[in-house]
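Notes on consecutive records. When two proteins share a document, each keeps its own sequence and its own token line. Never mix them. Below: protein one.
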Amino acid sequence: MKTLDLDGHVFSGKGEGAKYVRFPWVKAQMTEKLGVTPYLGTLNIKLAGKNVSQKKLLRSVKALEILPAEGFGRGRLFRAILENLPCAIVVPQVTNYPEDVIEIVASVNLREKLHLKDGDAVIVKILLE
């Protein structure tokens, strides 16, 4: 299986990812498509340099789709691994979403489980299908 490694730094977001994951229709689709119930929050990663352009490669590869409720945008999910933990990258299909940010969901609170704090460097291995 091909992979795409993206590295960046943990940062605190505005809680928008957590709000998204809490929608019952999002949580249900993530649970169904990933096989695990997602923790109700995301881990935000700020990408730098070549990682921003590499993230753009995700536009052309197969993804799991989050089909929106009326009035909401689509989301794309990519299975991934962070520090040997299974997780997924969520890419909201909305205008003005930052190109240099990825959000990660998992069945656990990744910050707590991996003892991460703002500024910590991480490498996310995205599994390409």
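Protein two starts on the next line and is unrelated to protein one.
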Amino acid sequence: MTTLPAPTPRPALPHMLRPSVIAGDFAYLILGLPLGIASFTVAVTGVSLAAGLLITLVGIPILMLTLLACRGFAAVERVRAALVLGEPVAAPERQWKRDTVWETTKAVLGDPGGWRDLLWSVVLMPVGIATFTIAVTAWTTALGLLTSPIWYWALPEDNEVHAALFESTAPGYSILRVAIGLALVPVAIAICRGVAQGQAKATAFAIGRQS
């Protein structure tokens, strides 16, 4: 009886080239902008309102609610960072609930981790703007050139960019644009992977469990 040789397993794609990783990095960077806007708005509005009403003592519960909201944003950010890093980002240990309202208030307002969450909620918006811009620019440039033969004919003739590569619809230039776009795809993948990992590690350092 003839024994057939075992099939050679296909080599696995490098981690950063897996479609799920590419899509995950892009989604992580894109979603940082709306989440950053939301967290920034809540944090700045809450702190401003609490400061203005502090003299009436109404500002204290508003500040507590703001810190609790920022704690929620921080929890979301830790989950998002864990998906990028491939490992969980531990939350700081907190015991805000106390026997009395006053003790609970002191625990919330005196928790350094809560203030880190608030600060990160403010920082997340400019970070989100930067990462959103990087991800969109990298991929639109690569995919725009790669697919240029499909849509390039529709560009207006009064294009302000005066260069044959970006003006001519000749087959040679079309092939060159596609080749450049194809070469930029791995560049876009590497850029998004590096930026996503950098932001995720910064998140873990800023609002993760401190060693």
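For the record: The CA atoms of residues 92 and 210 lie 7 Å apart.
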